[in-house]
Amino acid sequence: AAVRRQSLLDKPARNGAEKLPAIQRKMHFEEIYQGLSSLHAVNESQRCIHCAQKARCNWTCPLHNAIPELLRLVAEGKIIEAAELSHQSSSLPEICGRVCPQERLCEGACTLKPHSGAVAIGNIERYITDTALAQGWWPKVSPDIATRKERVAVIGAGPAGLGCADILARRGIQVDVYDRYPEIGGLLTFGIPPFKLDKQLLAMRREIFNSMGIEFHLNCEIGRDIAFSELLSSYQAVFLGVGTYDLMRAGLEHEDSPGVVQALPLLTASARRVMNLADDAATPWIELAGKHVVVLGGGDTAMDCLRTAIRLGAASVTCAYRRDEASMPGSKKEVVNAREEGVEFLFNAQPQFIERNDNGAVTGIGLIRTLLGEPGSDGRRRPQPVVGSEFVLPADVLVMAFGFQPHAMPWLETHQVTFDKYGLIETGKAGRLSTQTQHPKIFAGGDAVHGADLVVTAMVAGRQAARDILVMLGDSSPIQCSHSQE
Ligand code: FAD
Ligand code: SF4
């Protein structure tokens, strides 16, 4: 034990990816974290101590990526082997390497974390695929591509739909993916801002998936452009990876006033301009240049809005959050980045009313100071308003960033698909496979089933649905798609 402890203490300190200086990065939408050089990646990979058989990073990664083995291959300079291994358990490894909250997942469980800092697993995962693709490597296309007669329709090209399509295509199933947006990725493309995830990566992934035989039908909304019943009769199975798009409201009066905007339409409109796509009537452009912007909410979506407002030239950008800094639900790293870029934070301030001028436009947000009280049913301490502490924070634009809940899908209602009390699609009930709905041909996964969560968990669900669809189609031969060491 003493030798092992010494070896932990002897490791050099974590050396993760460099980020661009704040002064520079807030001028544009390019990714702030830089890729690792080969030497940097090798040195960081060599810090892994290859703990016993049950590496905790492996089982806390929702995909069970073979992390110690990937680190060993990188340390030996075997990048192509590492890319192949990475693609066995993940459909979008370079994307997860960029957007997973690693501090809560793989890196949070790294044995080195309390000693010299967790190995920079996310940065290395990104490095592996970025480098292999730059060297001309291309993910292996299934040898039995389109050799089978079965056809499966996937609705939604987000991480759940892409994970499902990836596994099915590798099994030679013909997969058609339908999405109402003009590019694949779902919230990867039209939610997560470009400074966290370069949109070119999705265009590259579309090419990769196309080369595997997956066909994308973009700008095509099921229930509007094509009837769902048409898909049900044309395909052997249908996967629903439709996300959750109903925006949560603050419950304040005058939330529809000019100057009050919702987080996702703001982020989508901004992403479309960065991608040189025309503005869309459903998510019109919102001018923030020279405006005083206040974002209400304290999660990752709020951080994305704040940092987008900075880049769009707002005169001031403030985050108002009803709890204290320690209680913020999102990634601490993103709070640091926002602060570095010039965001002001106002903690323990709960919205009370929207202040407007004679024309009905927003001029400020009425807030009341809070103290944290006893924990509620979710275990988090409840903010208690301090009587008489109301004040108004001036604002030209108020951004509501309170999260998402399931949207209505009337086109599903006549097809035996059931929903829980929150509107989430129910799967895995009485005798069904874990991702199968009450209709035997309809499967579902991702945010639409488990609620708004993460890219990696949506992908896991999509990949599981593909396995369930294969079982339903009578193919139960094993699929190598995770590396669980449990
Ligand atoms: P989505 O990504 O929402 O994809 C659903 C797709 O279905 C969409 O493309 C939609 O157009 C399509 N669709 C829906 N209905 C239809 C229809 N009728 N016809 C055709 N197409 C349809 N997670 C992280 O892990 N890291 C992050 O940094 C992170 N940042 C985030 C930032 C923001 C602003 C938001 C909103 C979310 C963030 N998330 C993050 C969460 C993550 O993006 C989601 O959990 C994940 O994308 C869910 O995947 P999904 O495939 O279930 O749904
Ligand atoms: Fe870590 Fe996410 Fe990669 Fe898994 S997918 S190894 S959790 S960064």
UniProtKB/TrEMBL annotation:
Enzyme's top EC category: oxidoreductase
Keyword Iron-sulfur: yes
Keyword Iron part of the UniProt annotation: yes
Enzyme Commission number(s) from the entry: 1.-.-.-, 1.4.1.-, 1.4.1.13
Keywords from the UniProt entry: 4Fe-4S, Iron, Iron-sulfur, Metal-binding, Oxidoreductase
Gene Ontology MF term list: glutamate synthase (NADPH) activity
Coiled-coil parts of chain: none
Protein known as: Glutamate synthase [NADPH] small subunit
Organism: Buttiauxella ferragutiae ATCC 51602
Lineage: Bacteria, Pseudomonadati, Pseudomonadota, Gammaproteobacteria, Enterobacterales
Included stretch of the parent chain: 165 to 650 of 653
